[in-house]
Amino acid sequence: MNKPVIIFFLVFLIFVSCKKDKEVEQYAEDFNYTAISVNGASNGFNYSNLTGSPVIRLAFSAPLAKGSLSSGIVFKDNQGKLIEVDYSLEEGNRIVVLKAAKSLFSFSKYTIEAGDKLMSEAGGRLRTPFTLTLVTSLDPADKFPRISDEELLTLVQRQTFKYFWDFGHPVSGMARERDSSGDIVTTGGTGFGVMAIITAIHRGFVTREEGLARIQKITTFLKNKAQRFHGAFPHWLNGNTGAVQPFSTKDNGADLVETSLLMQGLLTARQYFNGAGQEADLRNDINNLWNAVEWSWFRKDNGNALYWHWSPDYNWDMNLPVRGWNEALITYVLAASSSSHAIPKSVYENGWANNSSFRNGNTYFGVQLPLGPAMGGPLFFSHYSFMGINPLGLSDTYANYETQNKAHAQINYQYCKSNPKGFYGYGPDCWGLTASDDINGYKAHEPTNDNGVISPTAALSSFPYTPEESMKALKFFYYKLGDKVWKEYGFVDAFSLHEPWFASSFLAIDQGPIIVMIENYRSGLLWNLFMSCPEVKTGMRTLGFSSPRL
């Protein structure tokens, strides 16, 4: 080997050796985290149920360069907005202490990202970037000034009423299905809305003349534009045209249960508007709608049960008999009360009661439940039919309905209070499981189908059954969670403190019972009106009901 080649080879070896030594030296200067804690607790990368001012301590294997902290450790909210942070260094600059400059919002998710822009004093970089997830819990401060219980009940009724009044469909006057439904209006929800309007007149939110005009607008639309099938209305309608808006492919015709919820409201209005002139015209329109419903035709070939659906395209293909225990007792009561198309008692006994198969009799949390599924099912079972039917002192062969509904609500309350699944937030002030919007769509929440979602309508519409427990829930929802759940139309449809998650939606079938059942608790107004219907008295006696009001 000649001399120039040897020199080149030696230079090359020196270069490679130096480069390798430099890489080792650089690698040695890089550093990593050694410990993480939030408020003194170490729980990996996820921390929940935090106060609004958590203290985060991050320990590293090398002293940190103070100038790199703001770019190397980034605090963000759930929308990616930067949170202003106060940084300090301890123990030879190996520990950084972070605190948000302002208190964090309650029930909110935040992240802290430590990345490769974080530098050591020696110029090394963070070897393994990481992200912390922080979830805050309840801020116990009141969100609104304290007012009397009566003032609070009135406020809730007034604010919730806006859903039906300010947001009522401009053409039909009917209730939109939900706040994002556009022209889709709901039959049953409109029945609730009519009862809400009567409550609003009673409470002075609108005048009698204003309420009359709105209900007349609704009945005129129902009479002249809305599609009907053997006198029954579909679940949904187009609020402009009155055409059916299919609820599902085969559910594009009559919905007898939704029709019964609508008629419950209209008959209540008929009893309320007892004057001459326009009030008499309204009564006539309601009677025409009421008498046109062919309740007995929905026995499906004169059978011993009422059927929920009929379609002009699919006939009885839905094949869903209306059997208890659920929200549809009102359907059999009105079918028996019809002056034109009544059903006999045998249809109630074989169809609704299904030969007593809906009896329960078991005890849950020390409370015996006469009827229905295990632990009662979703609470709307005790609301929808009983917005008009007064359960107090009401009984028949199968149950005492005051006992039934109070037991149902009390079991629901006791379940949430005991909180067997350990969901954060459940307790004596935060309870109520029923059908509502959910984190993943829509869900019939109940003790046997519970995923941590509370629906305000559940506890608030139970005021007649659990007044003390419902008032505690109302105060918690309003004063403690008000910044999250109290909006332009009252309380949002649902929330989970466990996730946390808060719906932004409002549904007619959930807002309506809040107004009406609070009023039934306060004055019995809607109960008294509906139960004053002579046809209802006759129909309920036919079915074997007894009550001081019959």
Q: In words, what does this structure look like?
A:
This protein is an alpha+beta fold. The protein folds into two domains: 109 residues, Immunoglobulin-like, CATH 2.60.40; 394 residues, Glycosyltransferase (Alpha/alpha barrel). It contains 16 helices and 20 strands. The strands form eight sheets. The protein has a four-stranded antiparallel sheet with strand order 1-3-6-5, with no helix packed on it. A four-stranded mixed sheet has the order 2-8-7-4. A two-stranded antiparallel sheet has the order 9-10. About 5% of the residues have low confidence. InterPro entries: Glycoamylase-like_cons_dom. It comes from Arcticibacter tournemirensis.
Shape, per Cα inertia axes: elongated
- The amount of beta strand, in percent, is 5-15%
Supply the helix-strand structural class: alpha+beta
User: Based on the structure given, which CATH architecture of the largest domain is correct?
Assistant: Alpha/alpha barrel
User: What is the CATH domain class of the largest domain?
Assistant: Mainly Alpha
Q: What's the pLDDT, averaged over the residues?
A: 94
CATH topology of the largest domain: Glycosyltransferase
Q: How large is the radius of gyration?
A: 32 Å
Alpha-carbon distance between the two ends: 121 Å
Largest sheet: 4 strands, antiparallel
**Strand line-up across the major sheet:** 1-3-6-5
Let me know the CATH homologous superfamily of the largest domain. Answer: Glycoside hydrolase 144 (GH144)
Whole-number total of structural domains: 2
- Percent range for helical residues? 25-40%
Record field, number of beta strands: 20
Runs in which pLDDT lies below 50 for 5 or more consecutive residues are: 4-28
Count of alpha and pi helical runs:
16
Domain Glycoamylase-like: 321-534
Protein name: Beta-glucosidase
InterPro entries: Glycoamylase-like_cons_dom
